[in-house]
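Let's do one together. I've listed all components of the complex below, 320 residues spread over four lines.
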Amino acid sequence: MNNNNKPTGAEKVPFDLSRFMPYQLAVLADDVSDTIAQVYVDRFDLGRNEWRIMAWLGSARTMSAKDLGRRAGLDKMQTSRALARLQDKDLVSLKRDAQDRRGNIVQLTRAGRTLYDKIVPLVLAREDYLLAALTHQEIAALDTIIGKLRQQAIGLKTRG
Amino acid sequence: MNNNNKPTGAEKVPFDLSRFMPYQLAVLADDVSDTIAQVYVDRFDLGRNEWRIMAWLGSARTMSAKDLGRRAGLDKMQTSRALARLQDKDLVSLKRDAQDRRGNIVQLTRAGRTLYDKIVPLVLAREDYLLAALTHQEIAALDTIIGKLRQQAIGLKTRG
DNA sequence: GCGATATGGTAACACTTGTTACTATTATGT
DNA sequence: ACATAATAGTAACAAGTGTTACCATATCGC
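Okay, and this is what the predicted structure of the assembly comes out as:
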């Protein structure tokens, strides 16, 4: 994406951060995240990790803390802390897993479910508004592109 | 992007976080950022904000601290801290702006320039690798899409 | 069965980040 | 010109995060 001359030798490569795809992507993701965060942070005092956990919990009756963390992309400490905060706010309840007494089973409380039902339409509306900037073709393309890039990035991640 | 039925009434909207564009984008940006960060964090002990500042400085002889922050997308406190760290590592030098004695003028030290020259080809190679997953059309489309989405997101940001 | 190892989770510490308030300097209104 | 406001930057404290070590339970090898 950088408009650099293909480096045919050892000549200085001009580097333009503003044309650097990972940078553009990070900036965009931040801006987009912020518009969504306005909903759950400003109005309902939820952190991003807390919201993600609630979002996953919302479409499942019940889930293990471990799975929740994995799906929300959190490590176990982040998961533990997010769940602790959600418990303080009485939005989720934990109980020990009877099958494996190391783990916890999490579910939304009634208050949590109510909040979830309140937030979902709001964030969906924001998504709709954002996507309204794109054509149908672009939306489809974005989907493909995200998938491909992600695959490629994950490949680099593990190998180094 | 969510495959939700268009809500024609008040019926429950099924919400699938994994199909939620802002989430997909955040996850992708994280993965991509990580692959780039491997270069400057693991190998050269730079933070993201420090790297961004160096990246902007690299293509300018000299820049005001304020402008650097604005371009790197940092608030003034983040800028101040990143610059302090870069100074500790002797990668940039600051001097008071003679025209406006509130501000600082920043430039890369010799060591900073050397490091910059070392990092740039490495991150460009990573970008190339990532983009190799896409067709030329997709790369062009991504560029357009990022621009449009960003515009739209910024619109939402200021208004609320 | 039982010692070694792995797993889910949390405590505690260091470090980073956000927030508010403040200093110094410059721009503005009258 | 002078009080008021705005701007660049930092200090100081609160809050959040990463890291390591640890506890309890569960699994594996033999």
